[in-house]
Each structure stands twice: as structure tokens, then as C-alpha cells.
Amino acid sequence: MKLFDVYPLYDVTPVKAKGIEVWDDKGEKYLDFYGGHAVISIGHTHPHYVKRIKEQLDKMAFYSNSVQNPLQTALAEKLGTLSGCENYDLFMCNSGAEANENALKLASFHTGKSKVIAFTNSFHGRTSAAVAATDNPSINAPINKQQEVTFLALNDFDAFEKAINSDDYCAVILEAIQGVGGLDEPSTEFFQFIAKKCKENNVVLIADEVQSGYGRSGKFFAFQHHGIEPDIISIAKGMGNGFPVGGILIHESFKPSYGLLGTTFGGNHLACAASLAVLEVLEDENLITNAAELGSYFKEKAEEVPEIKNIKGKGLMIGLEFDFEVAALRKKMIVEQHMFTGSAKNKYLLRFLPALNITKSDIDLFFEALKKALK
């Protein structure tokens, strides 16, 4: 048997990692400024994270959600406190796509409707409703296209008001900072307008924080830059620092019932141990503040590079836009400078998504390498 060939791969084989440092099978060291799609939030093999998972593995790795699991309760309490979202309930699953799938399903249950409003260049996952709400026809199979989704441009007030007033929608799903799409953001005025219109029309507002959450933007959630309160918040990526885990935060105004949502692996003991470790490190090392401060420092350094035409994003979720396609530059950064960066649907954009405990020295090294690669 061979692997189903769906990923274009760089010729790098990582075998060991610590912090933002990654070593390949030839002993070469790389610096990871991409974190595997913003997944590595507290650094590779953080000692507290490793200890937490090892201790739990020695006790018990898994049992289903048919029994009590105090780790889930502890995680919900810790997450509510650190995020400021105490008036939400937690449902755990295994990935960002599954989180958004459950969010959309719950919105449909709640409203009795099925149509969704999403936005141009959005990315919400690769499963049924989540991929239908993703603005990429090439990954939408005919079976996904049965879902009814209206795509609107960000910050188009008139188009949004016209659509939502048609009274056909169960949900609006929105990334506070677009990830794969290229770091575009709704304005505060637009986000607040969406929240107001959703309330008026009994439409569920879903904040997709799969990539922008967990401190990456310089606040726990990126929507918190805009002073709104979503009905459902989807989370994953940095939640487990590499352990597969996801979830949704559901406003307390939603009433649960047995069988409404379900999962076999979601919220398992190892997932909870990993997720608790991430929250503990975020708090103990003050990493959300670090993300905000180093995001500002990064932008200052970026402004010194004349080839960079635009800087997008917040905190340590940043896009550098050039006036040329960056595929060759990204390859040079890996092959010649031994640094991982990310791409986007916007082919002119280089994405920077490191662990939240990087330092100014790490950023200095990045820009030294970038300037060499641009020559």
C-alpha cells in the first residue's frame, strides 16, 4: 500500500523539535515560524506539555463520553476563566472542521433553518457543511454543494443587510482574521453590524476562531478586538499544541439535550491533558501579552523591508504581502535559510504563525533571513 497523494511536499523530514527549533533526519536545524498551520501555540515539546501528557498516559489514555471525565470539567472552567467566556458551555470534538460542522448543525437545530452566510476567501474546513461554507470551489464535491451558502464580501454593509433580511438563514460564520484566505479582517463597525443584524433576525453568529484563537491575535479570541459576543465560537489548532483536539463554545442561551451533539474521541483524557497544559502555559508564561507585544515588534521590523508592500493581521497571526507571487520565496526560506513560513490563497502573501513564546531575537533572525532570501 502507498499513501494517497494529495499533499505537495517539501523535501524535509523533521524528526525532532523543541521550541521553534526543528531538526531533520540529516541533522539540519530549521526555525519554525509557521507552527504547522498555527497549531504549535506554546512551542514544540514544551516540558510542561510533555509532562502533562505522559502523566495522563500512565493513568488512562481514553474512554468514551458515556462516563464521567473530570478533566473535561476542569478544562471548561479554565478555558472560561482565561478567555473571559464564562457564560458559554464547552462541547469538545477533534478538529477545526468538526468544530465548525457542529457549530453549523447546532445553529440549524436552534433556528429550524438551513441557509448560511459566509464570506469571500473564507476557510472553515473540509467536511460537509464546513467545506460548503468555504470559498474554494475546487475542494467542494457535488455532495457538499447541496448546502445553501451565500458568499458576501467582507465589509459590504448593504449586501449583508439585504441578504440577512430575507429571513432564510440559520447562521453567519465569520473568521475574525482570515487564515488560509490571506489575513483579511472585518472592520469593527462591520462585525458589530453583523452581530446586531443577527440578533434582530434570530440568526446564529458563529465566530470561527480555529486559527485566530488561543491568544494568537494578542487577545484570547480575535473577535474580542471588536467588542461583540458571538453565539458560538469554534476552536482547534493551538488548543492542543499538536494533539488533535477541537471544540465549540456555546452561549448559555442555547439549551442542550441528550443526543443533540456527539463524538467518540472528542474530549478524551489525553486531549484534555494536552489542552489543559496549553492553557496553563499560556497563563504562567503570559503568552497572550507576548503575542501582542511581539506582533507590534514584528510589524516595526517589517516596515524596514521595502519589498513588503502590506502587513496584515494582528499579534502573531501576520501576513506579509509582496508585489510578486511568494512560492519561490517561501521555498528559498526553507531550502536556503532553513525557516518554515506559510502560504495563503492570496499568492502574494507570506504567512507568519509562530509559537506564542518566541522572542525578539527570533524575529530578528527571521528578518535577517528574509532579507537574504529577497536578494
From TrEMBL:
Single Gene Ontology MF annotation: identical protein binding
CDD domains: OAT_like (cd00610)
The protein's name: Acetylornithine transaminase
Listed Pfam families: Aminotran_3
Listed EC numbers: 2.6.1.11
Protein family: Belongs to the class-III pyridoxal-phosphate-dependent aminotransferase family.
Domain of life: Bacteria
Keyword Glycoprotein in record: no
Keywords linked to the UniProt accession: Aminotransferase, Pyridoxal phosphate, Transferase
InterPro entries cross-referenced by the UniProt entry: Aminotrans_3, Aminotrans_3_PPA_site, Class-III_PLP-dep_AT, PyrdxlP-dep_Trfase, PyrdxlP-dep_Trfase_major, PyrdxlP-dep_Trfase_small
Cofactor(s) recorded in Swiss-Prot or TrEMBL: pyridoxal 5'-phosphate
UniProt entry tagged with the keyword Isomerase: no
SUPFAM superfamilies: PLP-dependent transferases (SSF53383)
PANTHER family (alphabetical): ACETYLORNITHINE AMINOTRANSFERASE, MITOCHONDRIAL, AMINOTRANSFERASE CLASS III
Class of enzymatic activity (EC top level): transferase
Signal peptide: none
